[in-house]
Amino acid sequence: MKNNTILYILALAVFLIGTIEYIITGVIITPILIALTINVDRKKLLVASLGVFIATNGLMFADLSYEIVLWVRMIQGASGGMATVVAMAVATRLVEKERRGRAIGIILMGLSSSLVLGVPMGTFFSERLGWRVLFIAIGLLSVLPLLIIYRKVPAIKEVDRVTLRMQLSILQDPKILTALGITLLYIGGYSTLFTYITPFLQATSSLSITEISAVLFLAGVCSFVGSRMGGQLADAKGAKFTICLGLLLQGATILPFALAGMNLFLLILVLMIFMLATWSISPAQQLLLVTLVPRNPDMALSVNTSFIQLGFALGSGLGGLVISKTSVLYLNWLGLAAVSMALLLAIWLFRTFDHE
């Protein structure tokens, strides 16, 4: 089996994990678990994480108390988050250096498609078949990538032992902190608007809810394509170029949302560029961090994943605050402010430090 096929198997695992949704425990605990297991064979760690994820899905079928279910969900969030981070790290080790961006993009295709397609599909089936059936189905489907990873992924272990001090030094590096700030801001700017995109479109256009649903499905497809394009562009033109271009296009398409709603064709065009740009940034950003921390990429990817989740939470929270105090029509201004700050940070980072 070629490594390219294994990358798509890893993406499938990430899609299944993302469909169940992350919880805050996974965001908080994953960097700690990655730090504690940094010298463990990445293949063994990935298999173990997926195994725990599958087991917790199976436990959901049992008649458990609310407290036990909460603990199981916490373990599920931690194991799922860990498997996602390790899958990205493994992907970068299975390909040549010049193809790492594309490899990360493929894994992020699984994540983006889970957020915009998997979660709605999961909600649809859980409402008709019951939430327990959804967990069991995801658990059973996850067995396939687990077996293939166990059989086909080679052992991956660092030659030199990585100490805790070396890992903590990552968070003392101004380059890493700046890169993480970019992640927090551009994701925050995206989620500020997109979390409330349905009421925003209802307020700025005459589209019916069915038409809005179709537009959002197209947005999901664009996020999927954007992840792939971003990885390929990062390999061809570099992470710096891809990040700056993505931020420029993301910012440039936020404000026109309010006017684009008056014309369906213009709305679709603006939304497609916005989604393609936003999701193309992520693989380039992950590649940048892998490049900055070549001896400890797992830790960098783990912390960045946590900042992605924090960005979603920050954007959603600020967007809700804006709506409660003013109007949904002001969301694009808040999103533009966040993305603009991300672009300024990126320009400062790339001018101050020589990465490539």
Q: Strands, helices and their partners?
A:
Elements: H1 3-20, H2 24-36, H3 42-59, H4 66-93, H5 100-129, H6 131-152, H7 164-168, H8 174-194, H9 197-204, H10 209-237, H11 239-254, H12 257-260, H13 264-292, H14 297-325, H15 331-352
Helix pairs in contact: 1-4, 1-5, 1-6, 2-4, 2-14, 3-4, 3-6, 4-5, 4-14, 5-6, 5-10, 5-13, 8-13, 8-14, 8-15, 10-11, 10-13, 11-13, 11-15, 13-14
Pfam families: MFS_1
Domain Major facilitator superfamily (MFS) profile: 1-355
Protein name: MFS transporter
Tell me, rounded to a whole number, the average pLDDT: 85
Specify the helix fraction band. Answer: over 70%
How many individual helices? 15
Categorize the overall geometry. globular
User: What order do the helices and strands follow?
Assistant: HHHHHHHHHHHHHHH
Largest sheet: none
- Under CATH, the topology of the largest domain can be stated as Growth Hormone, Chain: A
The CATH superfamily of the largest domain is MFS general substrate transporter like domains
The amount of beta strand, in percent, is under 5%
At the first level of CATH, the class of the largest domain is: Mainly Alpha
> Could you say how many structural domains there are in total?
2
Low-confidence runs: none
Please state the second-level CATH architecture of the largest domain: Up-down Bundle
Structural class: mainly alpha
